[in-house]
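Hello forum,

I keep getting stuck at the same step: I have a sequence, I want structure tokens, and every attempt I make locally crashes halfway through. Rather than fight my setup again tonight, could one of you with a working pipeline run this one for me? It's a single chain of 2026 residues.
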Amino acid sequence: MGDDSEWMKLPIDQKCEHKVWKARLNGYEEALKLFQRIEDEKSPEWGKYLGLLKKFVTDSNAVAQLKGLEAALAYVENAHLAGKTSGEVVSGVVSKVFNQPKARAKELGSDICLMYIEIERAEVVQDELIKGLDNKNPKIVVTCIETLRKALSEFGSKIITLKPVVKVLPKQFESREKAVRDEAKLLSVEIYKWIRDALRPPLQGINSVQLKELEEEWVKLPTTAPKQSRFLRSQQALKAKFEQQQAAGGDEADGDDDDEPAPQVDPYELLEPVEILSKLPKDFYDKIEAKKWQERKEALEALETLAKNPKLENGDYGDLVRALKKVIGKDANVMLVTLAAKCLAGLAAGLRKKFGTYAGHVVPTILEKFKEKKPQVVQALQEAIDAVFLTTTLQNISEDVLGVMDNKNPSIKQQASLFLARSFRHCTQATLPKSMLKAFCPAFLKQVNDSAPEVRDAAYEALGTAMKVVGEKAVNPFLADLDKLKLDKIKESADKVELLGKKGGGGAEKKAPAAKVAPPAKVAPPAENPARSSGPPKKASAAKSGGPPKKGKSASALSAKGKKVPETKEFIETELSIEVCEEKSAAVLPASCMQLLDSANWKERLASMEEFQKAVEQMDKNEMPCQALVRMLAKKPGWKETNFQVMQMKLHIVGLIAQKGSFSKTSAFVVLDGLVDKIGDVKCGGKAKEGLTATAEACSLPWTAEQVVSMVFAQKNPKNQAETLNWLSNAMKEFGFTGINVKGFINNVKTALGATNPAVRTAAITLLGVMYLYMGAPLRMFFEDEKPALLKQIDDEFEKMQGQSPPAAFRGTKKGGAEEDGEEPDEQEEDGGGAPDIMDLLPRSDVSDKITQDIVDKMADKNWKIRKEGLDEVAAVISEAKFIQPSIGELPMALKGRLNDSNKILCQQTLTILQQIAVAMGPALKQYVKSLGMPIITVLGDSKTNVRAAAMTTLQAWVEQTGMKDWLEGEDLSEELKRENPFLRQEVLGWLAEKLPTMRTVPSDLMLCVPYLFICLEDRNGDVRKKAQDALPTFMMHLGYEKMLKATGKLKPASKEPVSVLLEKARAVMPAKPAPPPGKAGAAKSSSGGAPASKSGPSKPKPVIDDYDDDDPEPETKSKKVVKPGAAKKGVLAKKAPVTKAKDEEDRSGVIFILVPNGKEQRIKEEKGLKVLKWNFQTPRDEYVDQLKTQMSTCFARWLQDELFHASDFQRQVKAIGVMGERMEDELEGTVSCLDLILKWFTLRFFETNSTVLMKVLEYLKQLFPTLSRENYHLNEYEASSFIPYLILKVGESKDVVRKDVRAILTMLCKVYPASKVFPFLMDGTKSKNSKQRAECLEELGCLIENYGMNVCQPTPAKSLKEIAVHIGDRDNSVRNAALNTVVAVYNVCGDQVYKLIGNLSEKEMSMLEERVKRSAKKTPAAAPPPNRQTAERERLQREHPSNPNATFMRKPAQQPQEEVPNKLNQARAQNAEREHSHPSIPKEFQLDLDMIENDHTRVSELPDLVQHKLEELLEPIMMPEPKIRSVSPHFDDLHNSTASTINFVISQVASGDINTSIQALAQIDEVLRQEDKAEAMSGHIDQFLIATFMQLRLIYNTHMADDRLDKKDIFKLYSCIIGNMLSLFSMESLAREASMGVLKDLMHGLITLMLDARVEDIEDGQQLIRSVNLLVVRVLEKSDQTNILSALLVLLQDSLTTSSGSPMFAELVMKCLWRMIRFLPETINSINLDRILLDVHNFMKVFPKEKLKQLKSDVPHRTLKTLLHTLCKLTGAKILDHMSMIENRNESELEAHLRRVVKHSGNFSGMKSDRGTEKGQDDRMSKAKVSDILSEIFKKIGSKENTKEGLTELYEYKQKYSDADLEPFLRNTSQFFQSYVERGLRMIESEREGKGRIQPSSTVIPQHGLDSGSVPLNGEEMKPAVYYERLKILRQRQGLENNSRQAQLLQQVEGDSGPTRPITSLLSKPSVASSTDMLQSKLSQLKESRESHFQQEQSHSHSPTRSSSPAANLDDLKKRLERIKSNRQ
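Reply #2:
Ran it on my machine without issues. Output:
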């Protein structure tokens, strides 16, 4: 004991390490409590146990270990530091816990592993578990596999990496232990669920029997993808979403998330690579070149066998590929060609991305070989080229394919097109850029016109595929010249094309990067293109240009587009005849002017010109016939005018016409000759230049300049040539360089430089100087062949321009600006940035022919001198060519071999050649990054410094041309870092540290380098460590700290800590990621923006890198707008920036929307009058965009419009939307006035693929519609029709987040636009080809019907539902489900009527629908609808119904279904409405608005919403406490004047879906129950209150507890309120006994379910709550009516045993309650109705005969029943047999026999005799039974609608005959309403027979429960209440208060709940079990009765001819009637 006391004093952590096991056990127990108590996960207390945790799990004592495992689990779950212990703890669990015999220990160990996964340590856990699979102990192996299986099942394949698991799986199937094999089988099944067929290849090697078993198991699996059910700590949002979906309804809720589960696993990734190079036959290369074809065949067959391996090890396949290429290209034996093609396909498929290096070598050969006609050869070649394509990119092989597109051989052309068509199918819009289309489409267009039909068809297919991939909008511009027939064929091909849903393997993975190469995704705003023309707004260009450029497209790049655009976009005016011109001119010019135009007198001509000028100045632009006017000017003498004054006027007028009119290129052609001819004239030259400038503004400078230069150099006039070049120099400065055709200019400039006239040469050099401003140093490359003297002059001119920036452009074109928006995305995608495009313009030579086989062989020679000779020849070829095409034959492979030459001099020479190639080839070098670029990086590992320096120089030269992106993509860079070479590592890391900060974004593959970066941080070499530390922050700026920290999880424990410390340090110095600083921006501008770089080399690359890197403009210039148009694209000097920025901010400070009075109305009017285009299109054409710009220009701030239409920089658009959102509240009026334009602009964005802009648009819309709703603004038809159809297009978006946002917006939209009008748009959406769109539209339709009822179905419900039902047979599963759900929603609203509405369905579809309807019926909760639905409904009613509550009564009857609205009812309504108007003092809510209620299909048993009568206000003298609904929550202070209605209202709120509402209602009821004087007010409402209570319990159980968004404390509070109220209620026996049997049954069901709810235990104080429920159950059993509660328990037991899905604990608890009741039977026997109890026992035994009871798993039910019967017999003796009168057929159960046995055995059989003797007793019983039968028959008739009158008559006669007959037993269980009805019916018959006159009809026509209208054959007045009742009955059915399946029974059954202690039973043969629905029906009957009575009175008064018109008499009459109602209800 002394020892014990000694360790007891120790701290917990020391106890845990104590050598005594008891001490450790105690320590673990205390630690467990401590861990559960600490709330702060970062508490220092956790740190004490960090080193002890492994000992917790590896304790040598089994008992202590078990407790240690529990403590460890608590630690891992709660401690922030726990992740650090993962490796050692999991290792300990595997080795010391998984081998334990105790299942609990293994379970805890497995839980610890799973908890580590949950706290983001999945990799460590998985590694340890996989290591455990190698353990010799099979128990450990089994448990490891089982834990892996659990982890995969719970966390999914995104968290658990399957590749290493699959790798070790086959080995487990070979285990000798059956348990291991079985567990491996289970794991395989689980893996198969996640990756499906990807698992098959890795398991092909296992035993065939096992594989067969697996196949059988796999077949059984469900086809639906599994879902992650447990989530990491970082996935809490996903967890919440998952739980929300579960709550929302299982599988139907997860329809949208099909894309979210783990991505499809590529089987390739799970395979182990096979090394085949070493397995090739040793003589392979000799054999393949052998002369005998058999030997060549042997070699190829050997290779084919090896190449069939699905995954190949990487290696040097260069020689092998060359050998195969040679066979394909040159072998005459077609069989061998086929074999070689198959081998090539195998290599490509096995190597995937790694084969990309060789793709460029084999593609041309395969394409050329397509000349073969044999099908087997063609097929093999097709397979080969398709496999090769998947390893490379479209861009890389585009040159080769284009090269054969115009081949003479039709087969080659055909197969090339077919290959492209197949390739396009793998592409997306992003991966098939427009730059590629621009290259391919012209070639296809040639083939479309080919003479060979097969070539044409192939071209159609290729174009059709491209159209399918990128859309018609993208392809159509290239097809402008095609006739309709050919276009239709292309579209037909497009329709037939099926795109590949999934991308195939490595090729597809590589294509995405390729697409990025081709169109540097987010390139800077391209220069404004004035190539398309019309009048010049001065600021338009600046607006369109988007501010100063980041790296604008180089002018030369745009020149080509400048040429092309007019062909597709420019409006070409038709040429007019001279007669037409004269006619048009005469209409606008004075007659004298026309006559004197060609006068011989120059003065008259001058006067004519003056009149001409005045007329032009006064003309309106739209009226000016430009072509006619200029033709008049050109009329003789025209441009040959000899008088300079007349000529000056002419030229001036030309300028005026060009400026003022719509000046087309046709008009320009008329004047250009004259302008060019006079440009050198001393007197007229100035005017000629002005005319040229005006023409350039109208028709774009690029086009004008091209025409002018070609014209002037066709002349011999040097003066004109010189002046033209001078004008052009000046024009470039004024217009900017956008769109200039550099290539064409350079040719003309070279001509000018060679001119003999020095003025022409000087002008040419000046022009070059201006061009240099825009193009930079690359311009000089075009003139390197010029004479040295001339070259020096050029250099001098360039030197002068050095450092200058181009001036801001101030001239532009309106049309150019407008159309540029449509074209600029194409330009943006063209290729790289400025410099590369300029480089593309250089004349390039094809050197592939010069790189002969001889040179290649020399380079591979064994003699280094010959190798050098080969390299020298290559260098000579490249130097001679200067600029080369990317096709360089086999040179790449040869040079790659020389990079690792043993002779370092040759290695350096190779590097020099590679530098040469970089400069000569330009940007096209990208395709060689993998094959030649990566080997350069390998050379960085050379031991010689000079070689490394040369390699780095070469690398930099390459990167300048290619950008960094291609280098970082793929695994190649990480493979280089993997090499353990310190030189290579330090060089590469240094290079990355320099380059990464200049990049804005990087490929995700950079992450692959991180593990090697961490290794370098701990390298032995100090330089490597330093470089790694330098690179660390640059990696972090792109990848993020968290991601890199997570990557440390794979490090060894010893390495993790130091690396984490370095990461923390790097985090502090991590460079910012924004755009480059101004200095760098300036440098970047140099190539396209003007500041020329000092050296031609380095100036080129930066734009390329930055084009890829920069998503946004620089912070300084991002938001700027330059005042003058041109500057935006030309690059602005830093010194100018502050001015423009200040000006810009000043401009933007004003309002963004300009209020134009009646602006929107005018636009609507114009569109209706067809003055403008109606906003209706499949894809938006340019004219729509132009129209929208024009409309916006008047009411949008200029800068905002420019930003919104900024085509090249989407960030500008995003910011503009942001500004609109920020200013929405401030400028709401402006927003509303421009709403139609805003919505139209958004529709344009829906047709674009930029997801950033789309998400911003949706975000704005989510803000907009609620704001409009708050302002009560409703969209008009014009706004809705131009927006909603396009919004619905996006509901079919592939991105889940977009679909959800659009659905949310559609919901909001219904608040500002009627749902009934949204419905047809959604119906149109269901006709889409996009299955997602169809499904989502159908789901939305279902929501509309659910929320707004059938009224939304337009044009009619039947027509709409027929269209919806069509989709039940859709081939897409999600569409089918959505259609079924929608029809089920209709079913929930209108019941079986849905089958009539949907029309005929096929048998299969109908069965699907019926099954779904059944399922939905099971799932439909009985709870009240949630408040938001009610709110939406109220809003809808306010919006769609008149504000006057009675207005609905005055609507036309046609608005209602005809069969439901009889004419008499309409008359009554109309008269009722007149009465309302004649008595203004009567409150308007006096009416029950049946129209509104019937059309309201959404409320489910929301009884308080039925408007009740304020009778006390009508009849003030009487002061009757009639029910009244209050507008505010009632309190109980005014109980005396409206008690019943108040209680009804508050009770209805108890079942509210809103927790707070329910709690408040419960609190008010509790207040009443606690005051004895007020508690009596609850009498008569007990059943109603209990129904509301258990409905709330059900709502909590089904909905609230599953909703994570709700605070569990609120739920606990609600539970507490409910239980508190119940305890108070069941403390008062008088109230408790009012609870009827059906209600008690449901209440007990709810309470027992609550006690069994495991989730309650998780709530704080949950145990206390369960104890309270227990106490309440006891109180209910004691205080309730004993007959009712005993009967309820028996029925509940029967139900629980019948339902197999119920919990066994439920039945057990019911039986415990029954045992308690049995125990107290001696005290309660006298208060129990034994007849009822025995009837229930009889019914029980009918369902569960003795034999069936004994078959149950437990014998307790049997014993319970026996005990109950035995106790009853014991207490009553033989008299028990007298209490079986309610049982119709006693033979149906064993009850009577059993009772007789019990009585006999107890010796009390003689007790059967009554005091009056046996015989008499029997006679009494028989007579009693006879009477019972007679009365039963009578009451049956009363209860049936056909015989009710007959029944009442028979009952009256029976009473007359047997005056002492006791009707009490038959009436006591019926409702007060029924009793009153019988009583009044008897009184009426009595009155009739005694001739006392006719009783008021209103007192007789009390329709029964379940009667149809017209069931009582009375006159019209008497029918009206019945008609109302019928409609209420229909309403009840719709609201779920009356089940059709029970209708027949209900027609014969009368229920009630008014009797305080009367159970609800049937008057027929046996009572049915009344449920909550019955109670609600009864309540509805009572509500109906009070309303009917009043309606009857009003109607009878309105029809009565003797009715007094005096208001006083009227009032007295009403008083009498209401007194009668009051007496009837009491």
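Residues 252 and 882 are 66 Å apart (CA to CA). If your local run keeps crashing, start a new thread with the error log.
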